[in-house]
Write a structure and sequence with these properties.
This protein has 129 residues and is of the alpha+beta class. It has one domain (26-128): DNA Primase, Chain A, CATH 3.90.580. It has 5 helices and 5 strands. It has helices spanning 29-38, 41-45, 92-100, 104-115, 120-128; strands at 52-54, 57-60, 72-75, 80-83, 88-90. A 5-stranded antiparallel beta sheet has the order 1-2-3-4-5. Helix 3 packs across helix 4.
């Protein structure tokens, strides 16, 4: 009988790295949740893609790839999108970042301005300047 060799792994190596993890930075979770609640993701997606309702979701052609069969799904209830042709998914901030090439901070600021939400973190920075 041969001995089975088990490779040694450090404890940190057991944790999978989460891709596309975005730090909220100077914004509070409450501010981000308020923006998500006020801005339907279908409104942002509808600026670039013609969406049609399909059950609780909206479906359309991918804004990321040229295609003839719809593979882009937006769910206002969950506040998420998923593009099966490019394997991109996320929330309203990630969608705006992908569509317009913005940073997370710029996406939050733009959506806050559109929803009329004043960000306290920006007010604090302006006062400290």
């Amino acid at each position: 009988m041969t001995a089975k060799i088990i490779p040694f792994m450090l404890p940190s190596a057991n944790k999978p790295e989460a891709p596309n993890v975005v730090s909220p930075g100077p914004f509070t979770v409450a501010e981000l949740d308020a923006i998500r609640a006020r801005m339907p993701i279908s409104e942002i997606a509808g600026r670039k893609v013609k969406l049609r309702p399909q059950g609780r979701e909206f479906i359309g052609l991918s804004p990321f790839n040229a295609e003839t069969t719809p593979s882009f799904i937006v769910n206002d209830h969950d506040g998420t999108f998923r593009c099966f042709s490019s394997d991109k998914r996320g929330d309203v901030f990630e969608l705006l970042m992908e569509l317009e090439g913005l940073t997370f901070r710029k996406a939050v600021e733009k959506l806050a301005a559109e929803t009329g939400l004043a960000l306290s973190s920006l007010d604090d920075e302006e006062v400290s300047r």
